[in-house]
Amino acid sequence: METPVSTSVLTYADHLEEAARKPGHALVYYFRDHYMQFFHPEGRILDLGSFVGATVLHYAELGHEAVGVEAAPTYIRASRGRAKALGLEDRATFVHSMVEDYQPDAPFDACCCTEMLEHTPNPQAIVNKAFECLRPGGIFFVTSPA
Fold it and tell me: What residue ranges of the chain have pLDDT lower than 50?
């Protein structure tokens, strides 16, 4: 007799299956969609280590003002190109900067840092920067491999 699989596992598996059909990494999509329940619909969102911009573009598509900070110029060019192709240049901004050096023009309501801390020599500096960029009461989400 087969052991039944719990509904929560099926839901998670189904969600990842759906996310896998989108361009990009499925787990990032899972977490990114999960974060949405905590964000105010008009909130400003910062993505530290934005890679090729998938998270920033997703939030911009939902109507948020979203800013991605990325140190790699190739990824910044790709992100800006994707924003232009999607008509999201007015809501999706990509800044070429080391995260530690980034200076926001205004505080953010939320900050994401997904699968990036493990690639930096000083993760605490990244966490400190995230909190510097947030408004009082802002939300910081971080994911990193165990």
Answer: 3-10, 12, 16
Count of domains forming the chain: 1
* Tokens, residue 40: 């105010």
91: amino acid identity, one letter: R
Q: Are 100 and 129 in contact (CB under 8 A)?
A: yes
How many beta carbons lie within 10 A of that of residue 73, not counting itself? 9
What pLDDT is stored for residue 55 in this prediction? 87
Rounded CA-CA distance 35/72 in Å is 25
The domain containing residue 125 runs over which residues?
7-143
What CATH code is carried by the domain that includes residue 120? Answer: 3.40.50.150
Crossing angle of helices 7-20 and 26-35, rounded to 10°: 110
Please write the tens of the pLDDT for every residue from 128-142.
999 999 999 999 988
